[in-house]
Design brief:
By secondary structure, the protein is an alpha+beta fold. The protein has helices spanning 39-46, 55-63, 75-89, 137-148, 158-167, 172-175, 189-203, 207-223, 227-245, 297-318, 339-350, 362-404, 456-480, 523-536, 569-600, 610-620, 623-628, 631-635, 642-664; strands spanning 19-25, 30-36, 64-71, 105-108, 117-120, 129-131, 257-264, 268-277, 280-290, 329-331, 355-357, 412-421, 424-434, 437-438, 444-447, 516-520, 542-547, 552-554. The strands form four sheets. Strands 12, 13, 14, 15, 16, 17 and 18 form a seven-stranded mixed beta sheet that branches.
Length: 665
């Protein structure tokens, strides 16, 4: 535990100006980012009596080893810079309002030639438009089923679409007119995209326009004596109205607003948001976060608005979104301390005036109370689940320390796994768990060269050598490179941050060593890893092997394994780490194998080496698409001329003709 007085800035050195500050740990990693109207007043509060600090704040300042700051001109700039640094450094003590991955959304894959409508859970992707989130997946499917008769767009997966394209017959949805069957050319790509865009317009709130359009077409069909078409349009109108009924009308004046509410205690807080567009609830989402310091409701509101809407603006820049980034009104339980600055920033994001207000009476007040009840319910449910999760993780780390005889609990665990197919395409994975949870941003993968044919023991040794040699090299480079003195930093001018790249300021790839290294295997694999660490002079990393057959834990050079109880949290954690490493390695191995199989189809073409093969596959995505390309399209690939493009085109065209001839014989 560090003493905050050892890195406290000298009196009078902190400016009395708005700015953003960062706390770093002994390894140089940013562990907390904050902003302040007055840096001097805010930072001095962290160096008060430890007993009077919030528990998480006390943990943060005793974990930190230095503090630095950046002065800005306005508080609006401070808001933006704070968000950017939180996103870049992912500090462990900061509140992160990440998108909740449990709520389903309706995804429209606009980045495909024939866009697909489907229910989706997970992180956002470029080129995909999302509607929701919704409380239940069945609600999306029920609404989608109603709307497909009006907007018959594709809903099938890529495999189903490809199969029906090959057999030349649509699926059941195509026969019952709930899909326009683009797979068999029943509609063109342009017409299918028009259908999808009409669908998106309807879900975005342009319902009245669509209703009036269908009513007009129905009347015209009836007057033209096209009674069957008029009857179908009548049924389409009924389906649209049913879909609209499923979205509750909560505000009668067509209000566009986000309604936000919190439930919290000393250590945690839950937030719920209802998205109201056109007076109807279009979506709902929620988060539960740990408090890093003493926070009242105005502070929670300020932090949430800054992170949530900045994140929404970034998503809007990358992917089409459902509606605007910021609505005309944001209804909150209490106004933040500087509500005027927040309104200016939100208005800048929207491009027009945004009102930030507390509802006092009427329908908006009633809706705010409903959102607050949802927040309280979510918070109570989280408390019941969280108690078990925290207890289990803490117990697992404590048990590992006890069973393995470690000096401290292994807060950072790394695991290495090898994957190959009969000795070919040998790859390895390295996964990282911190505080018992996966840290996927620090996963690494290796294509093995030297030990590829010598077995798993040699492969484990190669991966460990490469990983920790890089760690030693980066640490040495950081120590040899004098850091530029920064008058705004409170640390000593000679301070070295070995985990940071001096050019980019970002975390180096292999800069942070684990407390425990787990290898997939038994005694020989663990011994090989330990021997490499001893050879490199690294003595503060514990090593064990986890054998799959009996789930035995093998210390290096041990005659007998350590047998953990089958029901222990420690064994469950090790199994999770090992299984995650296996999954990550297998995924990489399949990618390598798939690429090699595709490149083999290009063998024997004059002037085509390994680099050019890889360039072709990367550019076109597959050999099948490459076969469909023209000479001019192939020549556009970097490094290709017309002559080489003609050779590739002729070879693949000849292979296609040969295969057709053989199949006909």
């Amino acid at each position: 535990m560090a003493d905050p007085s050892t890195y406290r800035p000298a009196p009078g050195t902190i400016p009395d100006s708005p700015g953003v500050y960062k706390f770093r740990d002994a390894g140089g990693r940013v562990i907390y980012v904050g902003k302040a109207k007055s840096l001097r007043s805010r930072l001095n509060s962290y160096f008060a009596d430890l007993a009077g600090l919030h528990p998480r704040t006390r943990q943060m300042v005793t974990t930190a080893a230095s503090v630095e700051w950046t002065v800005v001109s306005t508080e609006v700039e401070a808001l933006q810079l704070e968000y950017n640094w939180i996103k870049e450094f992912d500090p462990r003590f900061n509140v992160r309002y990440r998108d909740d991955k449990t709520y389903p959304v309706l995804a429209v894959t606009l980045n495909e030639e024939f866009p697909r409508l489907h229910v989706y859970r997970g992180p956002r992707k470029k080129g995909v438009r999302y509607f929701g989130p919704y409380a239940h997946a069945w609600a999306i499917r029920e609404t989608l089923d109603l709307l497909l008769r009006v907007f018959p767009a594709r809903t099938c997966s890529a495999g189903v679409f490809r199969r029906h394209s090959q057999i030349g017959r649509p699926c059941l949805l195509g026969y019952i007119d709930k899909c326009s069957a683009p797979c068999v050319g029943a509609v063109s790509a342009e017409r299918h995209r028009e259908i999808v865009e009409d669908f998106c317009d309807f879900l975005s709130g342009r319902t009245d326009l669509m209703i009036r359009k269908l009513e007009r077409e129905m009347v015209e069909a009836s007057e033209a004596l096209e009674f069957e078409r008029a009857a179908r349009l009548r049924d389409d109108l009924t389906a649209l109205r049913k879909a609209m009924e499923k979205q509750a009308v909560v505000l009668g004046d067509g209000t566009d607003a986000d309604v936000i509410a919190f439930a919290h205690d000393e250590l945690e807080a839950a937030v719920q948001v209802f998205h109201v567009r056109g007076g109807r609830v279009r979506g709902q989402r929620g988060w539960v976060i740990d408090k890093v310091e003493e926070m009242d409701v105005p502070t929670l509101v300020e932090q949430f608005l800054a992170q949530f809407y900045a994140g929404q603006a970034e998503l809007a820049a990358e992917t089409p979104t459902d509606g605007v980034v910021v609505p005309r009104e944001v209804l909150v339980p209490e106004l933040p301390v500087d509500a005027e600055t927040m309104e200016q920033w939100l208005s800048k994001l929207r491009g027009s005036r945004v009102r930030l207000r507390v509802p006092r009476r009427g329908d908006k007040r009633a809706l705010a109370e409903t959102v607050a009840r949802n927040a309280e319910e979510a918070f109570s449910q989280h408390k019941l689940r969280r108690a078990g999760d925290l207890t289990a993780r803490s117990a697992a780390l404590s048990e590992l320390q006890e069973y393995l005889g470690l000096d401290s609990a292994p807060l950072r665990i790394e695991c290495v796994d090898i994957s190959h197919l009969a000795g070919t395409d040998v790859v390895a994975s390295l996964v990282v768990f911190e505080d018992g949870l996966p840290r996927k941003s620090e996963y690494r993968r290796f294509a093995l060269r030297e030990a590829a044919t010598e077995g798993d023991v040699a492969a484990i040794a190669e991966v460990v050598r490469r990983r920790f040699s890089r760690y030693l090299k980066e640490t040495q480079e950081a120590q040899e490179t004098p850091e530029t003195s920064d008058p705004q930093r409170s640390a000593e001018p000679n301070e070295v941050n070995p985990t940071l790249d001096p050019e980019t300021g970002k975390l180096r790839k292999f800069a942070y060593p684990p407390n425990l290294l787990v290898v997939d295997g038994a005694g020989p694999q663990a011994t090989a890893a330990a021997d490499v660490l001893a050879e490199l002079g690294i003595t503060d990393v514990a090593v064990v092997g986890l054998a799959k057959r009996l789930e035995e834990v093998w210390p290096p050079a041990a005659d007998d394994p350590v047998i953990l109880p089958r029901t222990s949290d420690a064994l469950y954690l090790l199994q999770r780490v090992r299984d995650e490493a296996h999954r990550f390695a297998l995924r990489y191995q399949r990618q390598k194998r798939s690429k090699r199989v595709q490149e083999s189809a290009l063998d024997g073409i004059p002037g085509l080496g390994q680099v050019r093969k890889a360039a072709l596959i990367k550019h076109f995505g597959s050999v099948r698409k490459l076969r469909q390309a023209t000479v001019a399209e192939i020549a556009e690939v970097p490094g290709f001329g017309t002559r080489t493009a003609e050779a590739v085109h002729a070879a693949l065209a000849g292979g296609r003709n040969d295969s057709r001839g053989e199949s006909q014989t």
